């Protein structure tokens, strides 16, 4: 799977992925918050390669931004617990409020405590909880705030996804409180050549809660899709 690129969720990093052979960059913001900045970073890392591009949550938003800017570089999509729509006004306010608090107080236990119930299911192992907590606490405050402000102004991506005549795998966690399965189904309906999978017993981070099962799912789909 050396042509598979996977982009991480908020507020995590590349350690969330355990998919052998995949390229898993850690996204870093700079300048004016905008997901196009992260898309440019990803495109630069690809070199001349055409890849299967995947992302979880925020990583999915970045994958859509890459597809908008350089569709010729993407031969397949893996979108995990993410959505194509822009944020509603209340969600935008909540993102800016978190960004303001992180800038004022830094990243601390409060952020992990606020995020964990939305990211992991009650079924999650102690190992998964420790990994996610560690990733959250080790993020730079400036990145966390930047990511939130960038996501708050992302556009609706239905237009670019609707024109993407490439195989797409849409995965959603059965127990995801942030993006329940219905959101994933709506995303799959926008894509012309999509396969939708609901993973039982997991929440917002299937690759963390059930890494082996997730990796097997992706590998099987790649084979079936001829990628």
What labels would you give this structure?
alpha/beta, Rossmann fold, 10 helices, 227 residues, five-stranded parallel β-sheet, single chain, 48% helix
Task: Tell me briefly what this model is.
Helix content is about 50%, strand content about 15%.
Structure description:
The chain contains 10 helices and 5 strands, in the order βαβαβαααααβαβαα. With 227 residues, it is an alpha/beta fold. It has a 5-stranded parallel sheet with strand order 1-2-3-4-5, covered by helices on one side. It is globular and about 50 Å long.
- Number of structural domains: 1
Count of helical segments? 10
Q: Give the name of the CATH architecture.
A: 3-Layer(aba) Sandwich
* Uncertain spans: none
State the helicity in percent bands: 40-55%
Head-to-tail CA distance between termini = 9 Å
Cα-atom Rg, whole angstroms? 16 Å
- Please give the largest β-sheet: 5 strands, parallel
Shape: globular
Mean pLDDT score: 95
Structural class: alpha/beta
CATH fold node name: Rossmann fold
Q: Give the ordered list of helices and strands.
A: EHEHEHHHHHEHEHH
Query: For the largest beta sheet, what order do the strands appear in spatially?
Result: 1-2-3-4-5
Strand tally = 5
GO molecular function: hydrolase activity
Keywords: Hydrolase
Protein name: Alpha/beta hydrolase
Organism: Lentzea flava
């Amino acid at each position: 799977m050396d042509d598979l690129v996977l982009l991480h969720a908020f507020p995590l990093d590349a350690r969330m992925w355990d998919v052998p052979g995949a390229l898993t960059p850690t996204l870093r913001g700079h300048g004016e918050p905008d997901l196009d900045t992260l898309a440019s970073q990803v495109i630069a890392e690809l070199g001349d390669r055409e890849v299967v591009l995947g992302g979880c949550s925020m990583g999915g938003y970045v994958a859509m931004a890459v597809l908008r800017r350089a569709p010729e570089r993407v031969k397949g999509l893996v979108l995990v617990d993410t959505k194509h729509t822009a944020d509603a006004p209340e969600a935008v306010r909540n993102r800016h409020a978190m960004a303001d608090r992180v800038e004022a107080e830094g990243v601390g236990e409060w952020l992990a405590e606020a995020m964990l119930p939305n990211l992991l299911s009650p079924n999650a192992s102690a190992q998964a909880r420790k990994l996610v907590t560690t990733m959250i606490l080790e993020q730079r405050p400036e990145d966390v705030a930047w990511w939130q402000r960038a996501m708050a102004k992302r556009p609706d991506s239905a237009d670019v996804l609707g024109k993407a005549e490439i195989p797409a795998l849409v995965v959603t966690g059965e127990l995801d409180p942030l993006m329940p399965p219905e959101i994933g189904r709506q995303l799959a309906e926008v894509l012309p050549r999509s396969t939708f999978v609901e993973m039982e017993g997991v929440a917002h981070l299937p690759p963390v809660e059930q890494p082996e099962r997730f990796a097997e799912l992706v590998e099987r789909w790649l084979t079936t899709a001829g990628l």
